[in-house]
Amino acid sequence: RCADLEPEKAVHYHHLCARWLAVGEPDSAEASARRALSREPGYLIARIQLAQCLYSRGDLAGATRFLEEITQESDLDPLDAVRVLTSAAFRPSLAMLYGESGRHGAALAAFGRAEGLAQSVRTRVAIESRRHRYLLRQGWYKETLTWSNRILAGQPNDRTWFNAQHNRVVALALIDSMEASRGVISELMASADTLGMLSTFMARRGAITLLLREQNPNEALKVIRDVRHDGLPTGGMFDIEIRDAEIEALLQDNRLDGAERALREQLRLYGGHSKAHLALAQTLERQGNYQEAAEHYHIFLEAWAQADPGQPPDVMAKERLQILGYTQ
């Protein structure tokens, strides 16, 4: 409706693109992003969304190349370069896409490059926050816990503080400090009246991690339902993380049919999410669907063709293909 009323404004088409992506319509989303660019050439968000359309279709390599080309432009504003390299709340960043393909060294190098481009303390702290969330998703929690404790010594006045609280909850759960993790969750929930819904959202995300760590999938699924009921941000990493957690809970509860449906829906929306292909392959194998399982192992390994060597997911997928009698 806004685009109809103000067809000359690019911002309306960028929002429309986001809505199309959230419902799994990358072709319509791409058309909207291109309309935005026709009204404002060089509009960065719309350009990143074109990469997101490729990712949605399952073209992880194409999305990565697209963002790499943007970062190589000589006239790119440094702050825009930082956004392309690291910002991944709702749209893919280059660091995130490197991580999706198992190129963790390249991902960390992208964060390092962004830090070199940062022109303010606030930007550097934001990059640190994104880097530590990335480390946490890879299971590298000790450095993240140290960083979170340092940030939390300050005042709860911006998103970085909330991210540090969330990271701390998850890191404590990963080192089996369950009571300490529960204490942070309680602190965040108690702060909701003064700090707003973001505090509740971060607390629930932490609680989901804690419950899965404790092998309590049914309670984790209840919290996931609460998150969605209260208004889960649609699209991007927030949605992917919640869907990942839901699938993990379903698999813990041995609800293979439900996990399969959730994985297929996730891949309909985020076809470039390589570990969803791996999880679907494992789920199909457990159900005896060996041929389709092999197909998804192959898709995963293709996405990880340039991965850092010796990583457990890569090794495991190759071993499973050999056991199933399907070779690369």
Mean pLDDT across residues: 90
The biggest beta sheet, please? none
Uncertain parts? none
Distance between the ends: 49 Å
Question: So what's the overall shape?
Answer: globular
Please identify the structural class as seen in this structure.
Answer: mainly alpha
Percent of residues in helices comes to over 70%
Q: Report the strand count.
A: 0
Order of helical and strand elements: HHHHHHHHHHHHHHHHHHHH
In terms of DSSP E residues, the strand content is: under 5%
Give a brief rundown of this model.
This protein has 328 residues and is mostly helical. 76% of the residues lie in helices and 0% in strands.
Descriptive notes:
With 328 residues, the chain is mainly alpha-helical. Helix content is 76%, strand content 0%. The chain contains 20 helices and no strands. Helix 2 runs parallel beside helix 4 and helix 12 (178-190) packs antiparallel against helix 14 (197-213).
Any key phrases for this structure?
globular, 0% strand, 76% helix, mainly alpha, 328 residues, single chain
Q: How would you summarize the topology of this molecule?
A:
Layout: H1 2-5, H2 10-22, H3 26-39, H4 44-57, H5 60-71, H6 78-86, H7 94-100, H8 104-117, H9 121-137, H10 142-151, H11 159-174, H12 178-190, H13 192-195, H14 197-213, H15 217-231, H16 236-252, H17 256-269, H18 274-286, H19 290-303, H20 312-324
Helix pairs in contact: 2-3, 2-4, 3-4, 4-5, 5-7, 6-8, 7-8, 8-9, 9-11, 10-11, 11-12, 11-14, 12-14, 14-15, 14-16, 15-16, 16-17, 17-18, 18-19, 19-20
